């Protein structure tokens, strides 16, 4: 009997230790936090959990949260360097590693739920350079194709079945062409209107709006709601008058609950705000002294109904800025340049779940996704 009691005690101790470790690895999201308080965050260094099958991520070029609070990423398998993919050679040259499939779905605890992609068909080519991901209300997954010879978006079911291509692979026609895209960077669906907004992008200098079901062109505009052009632009100078054209790239589009469209004009260090018909409303500068690669790479709005806050991914400076949405004032900053947990090397995209936790994706030499739990 004494041996049985000792064994039971040991089992309980092991179980308690395991539960403590699990609690440490996956902190519960804070619910009911004060929406008036300036948000604060803490990095979860254990998110996501280790990948199966000796997989490794390349540059993570997009991150999104769906209606189930599942986190989706798209990464660039071809960006692994030679000594990172020795295990996928024939014969293998090292134990490590294999490139993970480009599209991956995780839960909030960091468990991998699903992965697919990387091989095209006669119906569509797989992108030479993956860029941006978005999941619409129906669970369909959109990804961007941003190589010089790409110039299109792809729409898939959640399990990777191709549904539609927007744009024509390998073709582009300039910033006023109604049918062809120019290295698109990002996309968002207005579910109520059935419209797709595209940050178009790395070659063109515009926002383009298409029918979300058919991809048919509806309208487009450039900076300040004016007609865009493709004339060569002077390098960004914070002391010069505000540029009248978007930069390359136009890097993000986001819709607010009050029907405003937020556009990341990355290299011009600003966010421009429009009505959905393209009428210019206002703009915010973000770290306007930044000259290298720009500061406005992506943004998300806070999860409260009023969306009081904007969280702006600043790739050049390796930070996430918290802005008050009403006036664009910077009230907080997350991270710093670096490669440790909670630091950033070319933070490229950002996402938010229903509890207000943030998720980030890094390209360049960062090549990872991170989670930041909302603590206030």
Automatic annotation (TrEMBL):
Gene3D superfamilies: TolB, C-terminal domain (2.120.10.30). The keyword Glycoprotein applies. InterPro entries: 6-blade_b-propeller_TolB-like. Coiled coil: none annotated. Keywords: Glycoprotein, Signal. Residues 1-20 form the signal peptide. The keyword Nucleotide-binding does not apply. PANTHER family: BLL1368 PROTEIN, PEPTIDYL-GLYCINE ALPHA-AMIDATING MONOOXYGENASE. This is NHL repeat-containing protein. It comes from Usitatibacter rugosus.
């Amino acid at each position: 009997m004494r041996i049985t009691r000792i064994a039971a005690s040991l089992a309980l101790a092991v179980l308690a230790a395991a539960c403590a470790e699990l609690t440490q690895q996956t902190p519960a999201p804070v619910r009911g936090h004060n929406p008036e308080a300036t948000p604060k965050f803490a990095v979860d260094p254990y998110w996501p959990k280790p990948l199966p099958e000796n997989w490794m991520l390349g540059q993570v070029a997009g991150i999104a949260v769906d209606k189930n609070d599942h986190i989706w990423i798209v990464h660039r398998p071809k960006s692994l360097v030679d000594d990172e993919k020795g295990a996928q050679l024939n014969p293998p040259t090292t134990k490590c590693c294999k490139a993970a499939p480009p599209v991956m779905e995780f839960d909030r605890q960091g468990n991998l739920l699903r992965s697919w992609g990387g091989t095209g068909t006669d119906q569509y080519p797989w992108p030479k350079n993956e860029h941006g991901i978005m999941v619409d209300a129906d669970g369909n997954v959109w990804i961007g194709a941003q190589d010089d010879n790409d110039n299109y978006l792809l729409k898939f079911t959640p399990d990777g079945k191709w549904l539609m291509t927007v744009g024509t692979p390998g073709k582009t026609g300039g910033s006023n062409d109604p049918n062809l895209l120019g290295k698109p960077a990002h996309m968002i669906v207005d579910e109520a209107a059935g419209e797709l907004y595209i940050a178009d992008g790395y070659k063109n200098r515009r926002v383009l709006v298409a029918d979300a079901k058919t991809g048919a062109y509806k309208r487009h505009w450039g900076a300040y709601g004016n007609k865009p052009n493709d004339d060569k632009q002077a390098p960004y100078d914070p002391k010069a008058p505000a540029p009248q054209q978007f930069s390359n790239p136009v890097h993000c589009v986001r819709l607010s609950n009050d029907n405003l469209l937020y556009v990341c004009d990355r290299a011009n260090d600003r966010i421009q705000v429009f009505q959905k018909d393209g009428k210019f409303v206002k703009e915010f500068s973000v770290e306007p002294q930044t000259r290298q690669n720009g500061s406005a790479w992506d943004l998300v709005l806070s999860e409260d109904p009023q969306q009081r806050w904007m969280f702006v991914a600043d790739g050049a400076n390796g930070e996430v800025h918290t802005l008050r949405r009403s006036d664009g004032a910077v009230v907080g900053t997350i991270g710093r340049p670096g490669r440790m947990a909670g630091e950033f090397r070319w933070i490229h995209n950002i996402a938010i779940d229903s509890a207000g936790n943030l998720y980030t994706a890094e390209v360049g030499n960062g090549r990872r996704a991170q989670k930041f739990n909302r603590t206030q």
